[in-house]
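User: Here's a structure from my thesis project, written as structure tokens. My advisor, Dr. K., wants to see whether a designed sequence matches the one we expressed. Can you design one independently, without my sequence as a hint?
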């Protein structure tokens, strides 16, 4: 077909009209419908392969702040202990199905020692409710932190945890996956002391349209996520890892406020408001005028803050790695691989063996059981 078709009407002059756009739009609609049909068929096939929830015996249940329900369960069919996760979007429950599909896309493709191993999709009596079964876990990092086991904050233990975390992130990033929601609820340990990253509902492929990050945890997010910049890179996970590093070093959250605006305020107060030379992209932000109230924060006070809160832990390699994770410009942050090769991991003390992590997990369990016993007794 020629690009221009002639249209001659008796009461009009001869004119040319471009019909190509109509056919292009028509073809696009057909392709879109076919693609959607194939996706639906694929999802239907995945549902057929799902396990039934009555094949699992629930032993222990925990509800996370996000609304997610995490069970420790027995897979009756295979006679093994598993983790069973049922995700709940408290604020926007209508998005749950899309998030389930997002997780189903990523999980089967990821196999690494520091990524929680996916087993099966599980369907309950209500087919609208999907659960995901994983290898068994012992404790969430957030639970261990809450129980305040002293050994957790020893320098050699922190080094072990950070090394495992960066190894997991390095694997994800090499696979072109951006997690986008790294925080202590999304990190857990097995009974052998192995750290596992999980919950990829906010994950994106590199160069994929970014999409909204649906999370309750802004305290571990860099400003490019908080301000919803168009571009999103693996560097967002490095910032989050830096926040966890600081939290373990000083035994408290680096940016403790919950609301977006409050977290932004704390970031600028601690790290100073970036100049255009430091972070040019920030000055192209459409709502920059709303941030100008923070211009009075001129200095990066991270060193002073850390030395005031944990002077013994603040060696030169520690502070250097922390700074390298918490840089404003994502392009300037270290990659996970560069973090693994940082001098921090090659200077003493050496990272602790897995047995020390196991001791921490056991102590955390004892503390939790004692606390629960006291609470029941008080009632």
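Assistant: Designed independently from the structure alone:
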């Amino acid at each position: 077909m020629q690009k221009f078709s002639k249209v001659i009407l008796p009461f009009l002059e001869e004119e040319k009209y471009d019909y190509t756009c109509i056919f292009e739009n028509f073809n696009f609609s057909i392709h879109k419908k076919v693609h959607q049909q194939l996706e639906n068929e694929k999802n239907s096939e995945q549902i057929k392969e799902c396990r039934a929830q009555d094949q699992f015996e629930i032993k222990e249940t925990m509800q996370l702040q996000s609304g997610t329900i995490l069970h420790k369960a027995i897979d009756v069919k295979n006679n093994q202990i598993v983790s069973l996760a049922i995700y709940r979007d408290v604020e926007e429950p209508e998005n749950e199905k899309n998030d389930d599909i997002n997780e189903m896309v990523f999980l089967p493709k990821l196999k690494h020692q520091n990524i929680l191993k996916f087993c099966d999709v599980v369907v309950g009596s209500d087919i609208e409710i999907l659960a995901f079964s994983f290898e068994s876990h012992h404790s969430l990092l957030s639970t261990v932190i809450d129980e305040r086991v002293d050994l957790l904050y020893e320098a050699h233990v922190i080094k072990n945890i950070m090394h495992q975390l960066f190894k997991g992130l390095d694997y994800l990033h090499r696979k072109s996956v951006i997690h986008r929601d790294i925080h202590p609820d999304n990190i857990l340990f097995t009974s052998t002391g192995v750290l596992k990253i999980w919950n990829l509902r906010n994950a994106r492929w590199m160069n994929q349209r970014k999409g909204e990050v649906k999370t309750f945890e802004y305290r571990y997010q860099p400003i490019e996520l908080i301000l919803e910049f168009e571009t999103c890179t693996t560097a967002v996970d490095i910032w989050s890892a830096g926040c966890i590093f600081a939290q373990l070093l000083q035994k408290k959250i680096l940016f403790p406020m919950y609301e977006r605006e409050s977290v932004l305020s704390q970031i600028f107060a601690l790290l100073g408001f970036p100049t255009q030379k430091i972070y040019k992209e920030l000055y192209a932000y459409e709502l920059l005028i709303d941030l100008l109230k923070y211009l009075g924060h001129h200095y990066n006070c991270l060193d002073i803050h850390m030395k005031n809160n944990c002077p013994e832990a603040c060696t030169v390699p520690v502070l250097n790695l922390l700074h390298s994770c918490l840089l404003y410009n994502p392009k300037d942050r270290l990659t996970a691989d560069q973090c693994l090769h940082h001098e921090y991991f090659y200077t003493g003390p050496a990272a602790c063996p897995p047995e020390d992590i196991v001791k921490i997990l056991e102590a955390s369990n004892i503390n939790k059981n004692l606390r629960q016993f006291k609470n029941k007794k008080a009632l």
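When you compare it with your expressed construct, this may help: The chain has eleven helices and 13 strands.
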